Amino acid sequence: MKKIVRFLSVLAGIFVLAFLGCKQSDGASNDKETILKGETTILVDETLRPIIEDQIEVFQGSYQAKINLVAKSENEVVKSFMKDSTRLIVLSRPLNGNEEKFFASLKIIPKTTVIGTDAIAFIANKSNNDTLIALQDIVSFMKGKENARIKGLVFDNLNSSTVRYMNELAGLKSNPVKGIYSFKTNEEVLKYVSENEGMIGVVGLNWLYRPAATVSEYLKKLNVLSVKGIDKKDFIAPTQNNLAEGTYPLARDLYIINCQGGSGLGMGFSSFVAGDIGQRIVLKSGLLPVRMPGRKIIITTNSQKK
Which InterPro entries match (predicted)? Predict the structure, then answer.
């Protein structure tokens, strides 16, 4: 009799474990990441943070998804992209040859999606009524030539995409030392320039068009400068229209690069940003979308109204 009871107890235990195993399996299935469900992390160049924050907010409100945003300087997020398990990144440049070879060694083909056009903008304290700047003067200052109007150039971070872009433009292989100031974020740049005359801030344009509440007060004390390109005659403001016409000299495309190696949330988010809703968000932010979202115009006659 004891053996029968013991056998039944063991059998009951097996059924309980099997039941719990099935429940856990169901839970794992429900938690599985898809293109529109689950959780992932995205690495973002800090100069592009505002536009990606807007995209994530709308995406998460539409789907059962959670995207954790990590914003750092371009060099820092690229290093994390190569070393960590995070396989989704937003940059103002495509991957270079060495980075592509790295993912090729992992048998991963990066999927690169252009999502819009941003720009690098120059800002100055409003105490200076001159709202024009020649790009050649900026380049010359970076090369060590003094300029009575420019006391210093203020960057968010010496490892940022803005520094890389300006160094490439000036033909410099290393960061200039004289007259260069750096912080950690674009927000700190806005604050510093708003409080100091003669400083020229170098920031991502989307920080000016979609400012957070914390930086709105700084913008009231700043002028966004119109720029004369090298060997050009006209001063061009960094506006959406000028980006569309290709006349602003410091425009740059934005890329979402997905190296997840499969159909995951990275693919879904990339498609969302490149799709109609995502492109409307880019348009509303003051940047230039890759494709102009369509508009439906409904014409009604008086008889139809009646």
Answer: PBP_domain, Phosphate_ABC_transporter
- State whether 240 and 149 are in the same domain: yes
What pTM was estimated for this model as a whole?
A: 0.83
Looking at the structure of the chain, the number of domains it has is 2
Residues 123 and 234 occupy one common structural domain = yes
Helix axes 49-62, 276-284, angle to 10 degrees: 140
pLDDT digits (tens, 9 = 90+) for 76-113: 999 999 998 889 999 999 999 999 999 999 999 999 99
Q: Running DSSP on this structure, what letter comes out for residue 93?
A: S
pLDDT, tens digit, for every residue of 180-208? 999 988 999 999 999 999 999 999 998 99
Residue 160: alpha-carbon gap to chain centroid: 12
The Cα–Cα gap between 199 and 192 comes to 9
At 254, which amino acid appears? L
Give 305's pLDDT tier (boundaries 50, 70, 90): low
Burial 209-247 (b: 16+ CB within 10 A, else e): bbbeeebeebbeebbbbbbbbeeeeeebebbbebbeeee
Asked if 69 and 52 touch (Cβ cutoff 8 Å), the reply is: yes
What single string gives the DSSP state of each residue in 207-234?
HHHS--TTTHHHHTTEEEPEEEPTT--S
Note whether residue 300 is domain-resident. Answer: no
The whole-angstrom separation of Cα 279 and Cα 166 is 27
Q: Taking the mean position of all CA atoms in its chain, how far away is CA 16?
A: 49
